[in-house]
Amino acid sequence: MKKIAVLGCGTVGSGVVEVFYKNRQSIQRKAGCPLDIKYIYLRRPRPELPWQDKLCYDFDTILHDPEISIVVEVMGGLHPAGEWIAACLKNNKSVVTANKELIAAQGAQLLALARQHQVNLLFEASVGGGIPIIRPLHQCLGANELDDIQGILNGTTNFILTKMSREGMCFSQALQMAQQLGYAEADPTADVQGLDACRKICILASLAFGRQLYPQLVHCQGITELTPEDVEYARNWGGVIKLIARAHRDPDTQQLSALVAPMFVPHDSQLSTVDDVFNGILVDGDATGQVLFYGKGAGKLPTASAVVADVIDALKEGVHVHDSLFWKPAPKLEGQLKDEAVYPWYIRVSGVSAALLPNVAGAGHTVFEADGQAAYLIDAATAAQIEEALRVGGESTVVVGIGTIATHLRDLAKSYKEAQIALEV
């Protein structure tokens, strides 16, 4: 019998234990061997949990127990999770984790450590919750050159934007509803500021392009400044607003660009119909063309499903180390990745007359002007030119910038002239 240790028993951790015991018979059949959870690590006692005989409060007990074949890390955060995962790999124990923050920051080092000790480090649940995306990228799509990945990677912000679009709510009302329904944390910063989606696109880009992409290199803009007026303009334009995470590699120069930002998505894009807490990820392969991955991107049981599937994959009889699940480290550059391409842009400002915007932002046309605010669609500019325009015009006056979804979705929006060119912010 192979024994499992689970580090953490919060929402996801308790889900992992529940799914394991609920479906234990079929899980063992798929793994090809008897399995059991021997330890559930907690920092402090929790008498309400039903698995009191398995609770453990000392990580070293787990680390040095030779019966433990695999460790499931669902604590989250960088510390002590990073050190403990490294210690498990060095002690020849495979690890399954849902820790997107850790994999986005230290994935290359930890994968190299797993390879060195001939064990597995699997993290399907770190992106997309119950949506299979990590394994398809490095196995099913392994014959493809992947140069573009983009999608809706955060269910909380997608729920908020759906409510703003369908029911005319303002941001604060939609956020409050998301919190009441359990879709948003008490502190929603990582979600609404785009940090969660940024970590996920960094993991996908690192795997697709073969080198670590660090979150601090990615321009990241959230949805907190969006208003019903912006949503209404998107509707009149012929689309919806979505928080899009994108990573793109120029096939000629190999230059990488990445961003997380609100974007206009045309109605005939597949991503425009991804609503509520669902995620949608579009991967562009040179052999397959576009492939869409869709489903619930978070939640206790969907995430637990992905974690337990990784446990099966790591322990099944005859399995080998996944050599294709690997990427190389990269230097941590100063600043952020630059995109030199030219796009149209949408901006909304306060305290600046629409008549002055052409002098500040360049050629374009006014979308609306009311109550001291003006929205303006810039015909064409690079990201650097926009940054300069905002600096000259007064950065404090800029409320939000929105862009249409980028390059490879142009083919999905041929009926919309404006959508022929990607807009970014």
Ordered list of secondary-structure elements with their pairings:
Elements: E1 2-7, H1 11-22, H2 24-31, E2 35-41, E3 55-56, H3 59-63, E4 68-73, H4 81-90, E5 94-97, H5 100-116, E6 121-122, H6 134-140, E7 146-152, H7 155-167, H8 171-180, H9 189-192, H10 195-209, E8 219-220, H11 228-237, E9 239-249, E10 256-266, E11 278-285, E12 289-296, H12 300-315, E13 343-350, H13 357-361, E14 364-370, E15 373-381, H14 383-393, E16 398-404
Parallel strand pairs: 1-2, 1-4, 2-3, 4-5, 5-6, 8-10, 10-16
Antiparallel strand pairs: 7-9, 7-11, 9-10, 11-12, 13-15, 13-16, 14-15
Helix pairs in contact: 1-12, 2-12, 4-5, 5-10, 7-8
Kindly describe this structure.
By secondary structure, the protein is an alpha/beta fold. The protein is built from 14 helices and 16 strands. The protein has helices at residues 11-22, 24-31, 59-63, 81-90, 100-116, 134-140, 155-167, 171-180, 189-192, 195-209, 228-237, 300-315, 357-361, 383-393, and strands at 2-7, 35-41, 55-56, 68-73, 94-97, 121-122, 146-152, 219-220, 239-249, 256-266, 278-285, 289-296, 343-350, 364-370, 373-381, 398-404. Strands 7, 8, 9, 10, 11, 12, 13, 14, 15 and 16 form a 10-stranded mixed beta sheet that branches. A hairpin with a 2-residue loop joins strand 14 (364-370) and strand 15 (373-381).
